[in-house]
Design goal:
mainly beta, 1% helix
Length: 623
């Protein structure tokens, strides 16, 4: 795995190494019909000639070192077995390289019990309950394993466009073995809904342990029971909106949930009506992300507005201090064209190949230094995908669908310049669009959307704009690498509109017969966020490079982490060591959740990706 080429730019790799998590081997063992499936990580810091020996209960399983993959089916394995893996370099097993012993799952998922909050009653007498919602991951205690940070949403959460009181929003932290760590209560002055609480989980200061950052207010209670601001303040108006009172940004300790630093939230609210209305709709459209603005260490970027005025503020959390790096404001001179160009989500990548990250805000891109890079002028959209979608051209591409009908309502553009590579007309607000390699007959990703325009249906297109078929795959939400090939599967749900209940599904696109095939039915699970069909989280959490998915149970008493048991001979370093993918996981919970993409092309016919330019942080006290 050569490291002399940049995956993002296709140019010689002179980039500085980026700070990244020191995650362990991530060994997973799952009982299957013919033994035990075992998978583990190839780390982004490991050499190309690395191989492995697999041990069951202390005895080596494989006859020769495993060098072509990072998974194995042990036909002699049982539920009582325990597995470890050791590193082999040039035929020599390295002393001290043994992973932690891993027991065998009896099912294809790991269950994490939850502490479901008690429901309540709003000031106008409406009762509400709680459901597990969006999640993120980070190594909170520095032990090399991910912990889960889960947001609890009340049943009366609201979109900004709708009035009504909501219950409080909670953030919980859990170990993978089910241990509960802490709960943050964001309090009555943070409204519940997809647009309000964008929580970031990342190791911002490089101490080997992740922090949590999000918007807080008077009455927020940290994980140690400490109240931020005035515990008795109540800024909710009679319509349930919160359009007055102080707003804060707080950084919390990942291990304890303790508030480490609180400052005024930037971008500030200011005059509510200056954002497009006076009721609290446009002013409370929040986004957030993590970006390596200096190319080496991560910063947090808090955002406000995208239908009209657009403001982003970048901060560093270093040495116990929260400091502002820059502010971008579409009201500033020269940036009027950036107003109204934001999406219901963001993406982060080094789009111009200078080693430093840009924020892809939708139809505009903000450079690493807080200046505007470009605007396409196509306006707001609900769905966007950023990555190496076309392996035959350098750099990254953006596939985006738009709310405003135009000649380029569905389009692919160059991520560096904003040049429209091709587009199609739309006649309505397009709510969904997906980019994934689902057909091996065409290079790169295929794209489709939920729009139905003049010709009678969108259909399926190649990344270069060639129409493949008039048949549109009826799955528009997430895509996941799950089975043994390099094509991407479709992560979605079976949704009953009459009940509002969605049960998780994974589909395979049968490109020859132009139909979806259900390949996984996780019975008893529930999707999140209505028709959007989101899991709590999708990410490469353990095992090999393929992805895991977290769904909640129907009663929200547990999270279920599903992992594949399909054998693959493809060997790729863990996606969590690819900077674009790892940052995608950090922003996945933001507003309208979108699936993660890596910064290199991952699909049929791909070339082996280069090793990422990273260094890992260590917390020696935890190891």
């Amino acid at each position: 795995m050569s490291s002399n080429v940049s995956a993002s730019s296709g140019q010689p790799n002179t980039l500085l190494p980026r700070q990244m998590e020191d995650i362990g081997r991530g060994l997973v063992a799952i009982k299957v019909e013919k033994g035990v499936y075992v998978g583990w990580r190839l780390l982004g810091t490991e050499p190309a000639n690395i191989a492995y020996n697999l041990y069951r209960d202390g005895e080596k399983v494989n006859a020769e070192p495993i060098g072509s993959s990072t998974n194995y089916v042990d036909e002699q394995g049982s539920l009582d077995s325990s597995y470890t893996v050791r590193v082999v370099i040039e035929g020599v097993e390295l002393a001290g390289s043994e992973s932690q012993p891993t027991p065998v799952w009896s099912k294809d998922y790991m269950s994490i019990p939850l502490r479901k909050p008690e429901g309540g009653t709003t000031p106008d007498g409406i009762e509400y309950t709680y459901s597990a919602n969006d999640a993120s991951v980070g190594d909170l205690d520095g032990d090399g394993e991910y912990e889960i940070i889960l947001k609890w949403d009340p049943s009366n959460s609201h979109d900004n466009a709708h009035g009504g009181y909501t219950g409080n929003v909670y953030l919980d932290a859990y170990k993978m073995d089910g241990r509960f760590l802490w709960r943050i209560d964001l309090g009555r002055n943070i409204r519940a809904g997809a647009h309000y609480t964008q929580f970031l989980v990342y190791d911002f200061d490089g101490d080997g342990k992740a922090e949590i950052a999000c918007k807080t207010a008077d009455g927020t209670v940290d994980g140690q029971g400490n109240v931020i601001g005035d515990a008795n303040a109540d800024y909710r108006n009679k319509r349930g909106f919160i359009i007055e009172g102080p707003e804060f940004l707080t950084v919390f300790d990942g291990g304890t949930g303790k508030a480490l630093a609180t400052t005024d939230y930037d971008p500030p609210r200011g005059d509510v009506s200056a954002w497009g209305d006076s009721v609290g709709n446009r002013v409370d459209r929040f986004l957030a992300c993590v970006a390596y603005l200096d190319g080496v260490r991560p910063s947090l970027v808090m955002c406000r507005g995208y239908y009209t005025r657009t403001v982003l503020a970048a901060f560093n959390w270093r040495d116990g201090e929260l400091t502002k790096v820059w502010t971008f404001d579409s009201n500033n001179e020269g940036y009027a064209s950036y107003a109204g160009q934001g999406n219901h989500s963001v993406a982060v990548a080094d789009v111009d190949g200078d080693g430093k990250d840009e924020i892809v805000y939708g139809s505009c891109v903000i450079d690493h230094d807080g200046s505007g890079l470009y605007v396409t002028g196509l306006g707001h959209g609900d769905a966007m995908h950023v990555g190496s979608l076309n392996p035959n051209r350098p750099g990254l591409e953006v596939y985006q669908v738009h709310e405003n009908p135009s000649d380029n309502g569905i389009e692919v553009h160059d991520a560096k310049t904003g040049e429209i590579l091709w587009g199609l007309p739309s006649t309505s607000d397009i709510g969904r669009g997906l980019a994934a390699d689902i057909d091996p007959r065409y290079d790169g990703a295929e794209v489709w959307s939920s729009d139905h325009w003049k010709t009678g249906g969108f259909g399926l297109y190649s990344i270069t704009g060639e129409k493949i078929t008039n048949t549109t795959p009826q799955s528009f939400n997430f895509a996941i690498w799950w089975d043994g090939d390099l094509l991407r599967e479709l992560l979605d749900h079976e949704y009953d509109r009459s009940t509002g209940i969605g049960e998780g599904r994974i589909y395979k696109w049968d490109y020859e017969n132009e139909r979806l095939i259900t390949i996984m039915t996780p019975e008893g699970t529930r999707s999140n966020n209505g028709t959007k069909g989101n899991p709590c989280l999708q990410a490469d959490l353990f095992g090999d490079w393929r992805e895991e998915v977290i769904w909640r149970s129907a009663d929200s008493t547990e999270l279920r982490i599903y992992s594949t048991t399909e054998v693959t001979e493809h060997r790729i370093h863990t996606l969590m060591h690819d900077p674009v993918y790892r940052l995608s996981v950090a922003w996945q919970n933001v507003c309208y959740n979108q699936p993660p993409h890596p910064g290199f092309y991952l699909g049929h016919g791909m070339e082996l990706p280069p090793a990422p330019a990273i260094y890992v942080t260590k917390n020696n006290q935890a190891k």
